[in-house]
Amino acid sequence: MSIFAGKDSKTFRPKKNIPEGTHQYELMQHAAATLGSGNLREAVALPDGEDVNEWVAVNTVDFFNQINMLYGTIADHCTAESCPVMSAGPRYEYHWADGQNVKKPVKCSAPKYMDYLMSWIQEQLDDESIFPSKVGVAFPKSFMNVAKTIFKRLFRVYGHIYHQHFQSVISLGEEAHLNTSFKHYILFVQEFNLIDKRELQPLAELIEKLTGK
Known about the structure:
- The chain has helices at 23-36, 40-44, 52-74, 110-126, 143-164, 166-171, 175-191, 204-211, and strands at residues 86-87, 93-94.
- It is mostly helical.
- The N and C termini lie far apart (40 Å).
């Protein structure tokens, strides 16, 4: 089933929500409040006394929702005709494989890749054995590896938007929103070493400009 709600809505379906009343919800509120201060480096830091897995889990959900919405704004401009391959500039092309439903990497259009990717991430987030939401349930030993794979693949969406659709972003007046979201994302993955630096090469110059690293 497609994760798109339809061209007219320009949004994804569904949006992942963290249940109110849970500790993860409190962490999400903390993250939102810290972001409001405008200090992104402070916003990504692990709050005192908190579990790093839970903090990464909460932020994984947040970035999944953010990137869903950002891509949704340019989805009308990203078609199988305009983007027959998922790429981030001429040197970087991404093929899809999830190791389960699609074991051998397949070349596909950017919108098809996005559909595969967001559906796969949604499955991971909904899996209580990977992303437990109940108090007292421990995160699995494999959690951080799953989170790293999610963040690595979400980076490709930023890469595709910046390289293939930045003019559309500018015409929609979303440039500042995109840059802030990406800076927040990069500071977070740098803070917790979630992505190999080689994976970030398609946007290396922008990353240096935004973060000084």
